[in-house]
Design a protein that fits this description.
404 residues, 18% strand, iron, catalase activity, oxidoreductase
Amino acid sequence: MNKLTTLGVSVFAALFGFKVQALDETALEMGMSQPEYDAVQSSILSAREISRRAEEYNGRPYRRDAHAKATGCVRATFTVNPDIPARFKASLFEHEGHQYPAWIRFSNGDMLVQADKKGDARGMAIKVMNVPGDPIAPELGASGNQDFIMTNVPAFFNRNIFDYAEDMLFLAKFERTKWFISIFPPRFHPKQFYRAIQTVSTVIDTPLDAQYFSMLPYQLGKNTIKFSTKPCKGMTFPGKVDRSPENYLNTQLQEQLLTDGACFDFMVQEKVTGKYMPIDDATVIWSEKASPFIPIATIHIPPQLINSPEQTEFCENVSMNPWRAVDGWEPLGSLNRARRLVYKAVSDYRHMMNKVPTPEPTSWCLKEEQTEACKTERLIETTPNWPFKRDFDYLARPLGDEKY
């Protein structure tokens, strides 16, 4: 296809400050069909309307159309495992043992800012920095960053871009269930409805004690995969958490990171020939029995302070896109193709409405002037306070004037 027709060109461009020609070129580059492109444009307009209407409920600033409430942004490291299988050595995973700085945004999935105790999807979005390679989506800039976006459920409640575009029309009117089930006109999407119920039913005690899933497939080198993170073995969490405070997830996140770090395994699941692992049906959970998750990287979150005004503002304004990545990596399926355009257009819209730039960090430092001290000033150094000498512990503190 050599040309795609843009719906409502003047209105679309005026709303989003987005160059229609650039939108067309990106869609053509991905091989997007006209029906897909129509669905994407409809989805962008719906997402913009969700953001506008949610602002009336949430108040300023204009937020994301989904995952509007951040439960915290944290500094982390992302380290490629030394024993990574050779077939996965591509993109940022090319060099075993390589460590990258990263930011992680934890969030609640709803369009509205609501109490943490309410059932909802929970998000984990990782921005890995200083990644060598050419960007796969030039319109997102050559930042040298790679984003991984996940929720704590393994499947989505829309199969593809066409489900998504139809559902978004109802969500833009805050009619949350009308696409899934309706008496007049008669409509019933049972599997999608079941997945939606699963998504909005989860309640967690802390963002650090959950497994997160990509839901959608990706190409890593020559392998088709999904990815996931889960807490490392040996991590401990509070036995009982008071869920009554409206923002208890942020409180739990900060309390744990005052004294302890956290750790996640980053894992991939390969698509297996002969098993039902579709590319373009996100409601299907790929069988872990047929293809177990394989750890290929480790995420460490050091003890730190997370709630400075500067960091809270960054957490609100930072933008995530699954196409912000370097070569050797490619999001697959119609929903992922749509996300490239929808996420950018909605991000541009909310930043335009809020009159703020879109931050794209290059380190843990959030200040314009990058210094080594700035990169670590929010970290908490933890040193065991042993009552007696521990020669085998290189972090042991001296007792008084004792010399080692």
